[in-house]
Amino acid sequence: MTKRSLPRWSELRPLLQMQPVPLDPVERRLARCHTVADLREAARRRVPRAVFDFVDGAAEGEVSLARSRAAFDRVEFAPAALAGFDEVSTSTTILGTPSALPLVLAPTGFTRLSHHDGEAAVAAAAAEAGIPYALTTMSTVSIEDVAAASGDGTRWFQLYLMRDRGLTRELVRRAKDAGYRALVVTVDTPVVGQRVRDLHNGLTIPPTLTPRTLLDISRRPQWWANLLTTEPLEFATLQAGEPEAHSALIDRLFDPAVTVDDFAPLREWWDGPIVVKGIQSVADARRAVEELGAEALVVSNHGGRQLDRAPTPLELLPRVAEAVGDRTEVLIDSGVRTGADLAAVVALGARAALVGRPYLYGLMAGGRRGVAKTIAVYEAELRRTLHLLGVPGVDALDGSHALLRAA
Ligand SMILES: Cc1cc2nc3c(=O)[nH]c(=O)nc-3n(C[C@H](O)[C@H](O)[C@H](O)COP(=O)(O)O)c2cc1C
């Protein structure tokens, strides 16, 4: 028979949760987020449905996105026991510049839709964490203001080649003058993928006031108050006109018929490294290196937002790394959601991964501090994974540490 007695205060006291709850609502919200999935849920509760869907959604049936994410479940790590490391190092170099993590914040258009501080908040958080940030052509804060927010941080500029080559050249010049280190040329967007969620939500850029949005204001008053009381939400680099669907704007401005020859002038305008983003085959990886002389490439299906049922970047990565990894830096994106995913992609041949939605979830959940929280989540998870793998640092990861199980 178990003997029972009432607990004494001296026994109970150490069990009491005496952690102070943060008074600041943003801190409180972020303190409850331990994973990117948690940040996604926090984001969902903060912003209008159309805004969340614009970020979270993908093209057509969203098959590319689901497959890109699911592929990470097939990673199998090979840990070494008794490795004897007290400390592990998460840092690496990307394009010759030190980075605190094998992580780059990807270019994402129209960031002020997620939070009124937009790209400036993202740039500041990336700089503070010591990782690169790639500003998009479709930015809602100017190239120069983002540079000021990023200070000494590593910043890259993502370029879409536009029908108006004069404007394209001007953007490259401004990026160069403002201290952007690399030019990321995106090659997977001859036209914009069909984002069905945006169509259903009637999303326009900038958002318009319809009976539906007016209803939404009652549900997300703070987001709308921020939208209506801060700088008008518009493209900082491009001339936009009347509110219109995002895809219509892009199709109007971007050149759908870009070829290898269009890169020649870029080399005249830009003397830094060029990163080709949106590589989806080994053949194109070879062309990017041999014909364009790319200093790095990003194996990417644009987070599933362009061609649906496109190749899955994680599955393509080992073959691309094998084909061109000795001549260029191979980066990857689409579906990287944990620090363990970062370890996996490096083991499978990437120098680093880009993430898009994850930091936008953080931004929606808590502005700049939310982006910082996203990066901190990746950092903690990566550090723990390296320890558990028995690997002293990111740069020691190789093919012996992870494999991709058959589908
Ligand atoms: C809201 C949003 C906007 C994006 N805008 C751009 C863009 O302007 N230029 C670009 O090259 N890629 C853009 N991307 C793609 C990202 O750079 C990146 O390839 C993708 O988000 C990676 O997948 P992940 O979101 O699963 O991490 C965008 C992605 C999102 C989610």
UniProtKB/TrEMBL annotation:
Alphabetic keyword roster: Flavoprotein, FMN, Oxidoreductase
Domain FMN hydroxy acid dehydrogenase, first and last residues per copy: 28-407
InterPro entries cross-referenced by the UniProt entry: Aldolase_TIM, Alpha-hydoxy_acid_DH_FMN, FMN-dep_DH, FMN_HAD, FMN_hydac_DH_AS
Cofactor(s), names only, from the UniProt record: FMN
GO molecular function, one term: FMN binding
Ligand binding (glyoxylate): 160, 195, 302, 305
Active site: 302
Domain of life, per lineage: Bacteria
Binding positions for FMN per the UniProt entry: 107-109, 158, 186, 277, 300, 333-337, 356-357
Family statement drawn from the similarity comment of this UniProt entry: Belongs to the FMN-dependent alpha-hydroxy acid dehydrogenase family.
Name recorded for this polypeptide: L-lactate dehydrogenase (Cytochrome)
Native organism: Ornithinicoccus hortensis
Source taxonomy: Bacteria, Bacillati, Actinomycetota, Actinomycetes, Micrococcales
